[in-house]
Amino acid sequence: MSNGKGKVAIITGAGGGAGRAAAKVFAADGYSVVAADIDAEGVEQTVGEIEADGGVATASATDIADRDAVEAMVKLAVDTYGGLDAAVNNAAIPQVIRDGRPSGTLIHEMSFEEWDRVMKINLYGTFFCLQSEIRAMREHGGGSIVNISSSSAVRALEGLAAYISTKKAIFGLTEVASIENGRHGIRVNTVIPGSVTETKMTFLERGDPAASDRSYAEVSPLGRGQKPAELAAAILFLCSDAASYITGTSLLVDGGTTVRHPSSKEME
Amino acid sequence: MSEQKRVALIAGASGGIGGETARTLAREGYDLALSYRSNDEAAAKIAAEVEELGATARTYKATLYKYAEVKAMVDHVVADFDRIDATIYAAGPYLPQRWVTEFDPAEMDDILRDDTVSCWNLLHASVPALRETEGAIVSVSTPAVRRHARKDLLSSVPKAAIEALIRAVASEEGRFGVRANAVAVGALEDGMYHRLLAEEDFDERWIEVTKSVVALGRLGKATDIAEAISFLVSPERAGYVSGQTLTVDGGYAL
């Protein structure tokens, strides 16, 4: 693959998990990659892995909730590699970490701080990224943006009102950004992952903490979990010229899990 | 797996989207079983073109709403190629643009038979072969399933049923490794477009209005659809995508 040759991509949340996998897949496709994450050590490792494979990447220690830091991240891409062709807005936090695991809180019991922190990072942060990326892409002849939502945004899960609200908002941001920028050569789409194996995030299932241990292998029609590289392949396609007529839409990469009613599995 | 090439069965191969999909998959190394209903000349032309691109191709004339013909065709394809890795439904009748009240009531029987039943027959007959290869299904659909475009019910009604069929196959056949997806095709300046213009179902005003509501400000091409189909059938690129409809419409549906 070398479709990304001569192109520049920013991947946020690239300090580990699905973001790191995406950064590596983009670099392998020929993109010069700015790998961004609030986890400075994590992105250094991502860049090291890309360089070890012969790819080109730069680390950006970025808190996306900080508007100036986001602007600096985009400037880094433009200054280092001469433009911006693709951006993957993947950085997000789980609603709350409790006993070392992602968790949630029922609406009537949730503190304002829990709600507000998720809004500031997942929603405001993604908005700041879009602003800076769109400005850069308008100046450099267009580009393609992929915003990452979550399959929890297409079916309800107890305790995750804050997280799910931010992930549903991604669809709105994508759709408005796509109609505002289509005539400027910028395409904007959403990718909706299922639960990505080997990443930090797993979710409560129907409010049952034990159920969050239940793997996607058990609930997916395909009978297996998702590999981070499979999510990355879908993102890469949407950023490529092969997808040049695709904008304002979303693609679920969850093995068909959410099109099937959860009860179907129990009755197989 | 042997080093045998992957095989795609494309229904509607003599049409704009089917033909372009055949060319795209040929470039990616597939051999091609090309199914068509009536246009011998167009099917032979596509077959010759994909053979130039290095594919082995065979054509199969079949009326897809007749299950016996479809079953015989699929058996024939498996006998000829030994496998099917992808089944692609890009067939379907011409779709005149009319108001709801302008149809003869009986025409609904015809359109459901020609489109929904044809797709059902093709999927039903293909699934056993696709289980063997953990293969994939892609059907053409339309954004009009979700947002009605005026005078376009011949497109939206049968495709709504086809999308439900795709979700059913994805849900139930996933355990055998079979994936099923759809591509919702926006306004193209290829394929049926030319006949829609010739029959005056589309006119200059339609083109201008449509372009004005497409976020990208232009109509799409058959290659845009072929690339999306190629992505969705690929186990390397879309191995965890199933039960979905990927909209390829330049933002028309927004």
Instruction: Count every helix of chain B, treating DSSP H or I runs of 4 or more residues as helices.
Output: 9
Q: Output the radius of gyration of chain A.
A: 18 Å
Report the CATH topology name of chain B. Answer: Rossmann fold
The proportion of residues forming helix of chain B, as a percent range, comes to 40-55%
Shape of chain B: globular
- What's the number of helices of chain A? 8
SSE succession of chain B: EHEHEHEHEHEHHHHE
* CATH superfamily descriptor of chain A: NAD(P)-binding Rossmann-like Domain
Mean pLDDT of chain A: 89
Verbal overview:
The complex is a heterodimer of chains A (268) and B (254). By secondary structure, chain A is of the alpha/beta class. Chain A has a 7-stranded parallel beta sheet with strand order 3-2-1-4-7-8-9, sandwiched between helices. In chain A, strands 5-6 form a two-stranded antiparallel ribbon. Chain A is 41% helix and 17% strand. In chain A, helix 1 (17-28) runs parallel beside helix 2 (40-52) and helix 1 (17-28) packs across helix 7. Chain B has 9 helices and 7 strands. Chain B has one domain: 3-Layer(aba) Sandwich (Rossmann fold). Helices cover 48% and strands 15% of the residues of chain B. Chain B is globular and about 50 Å long. Chain B is an alpha/beta fold.
Task: Tell me briefly what this model is.
The complex is a heterodimer of chains A (268) and B (254). By secondary structure, chain A is an alpha/beta fold.
Give the SSE layout.
The complex is a heterodimer of chains A (268) and B (254).
Chain A (H helix, E strand, L loop, with lengths): L7 E5 L4 H12 L3 E6 L2 H13 L3 E6 L5 H15 L4 E4 L6 E3 L2 E3 L8 H28 L3 E6 L12 H21 L4 E8 L22 H4 L8 H12 L10 E4 L8 H5 L2
Parallel strand pairs in A: 1-2, 1-4, 2-3, 4-7, 7-8, 8-9
Antiparallel strand pairs in A: 5-6
Helix pairs in contact in A: 1-2, 1-7, 3-4, 4-5
Chain B lengths: L6 E5 L4 H12 L3 E6 L3 H13 L4 E5 L5 H15 L4 E4 L17 H27 L2 E6 L11 H21 L5 E7 L6 H7 L5 H10 L8 H12 L1 H4 L6 E4 L6
Parallel strand pairs in B: 1-2, 1-4, 2-3, 4-5, 5-6, 6-7
Helix pairs in contact in B: 1-2, 1-8, 3-4, 4-5
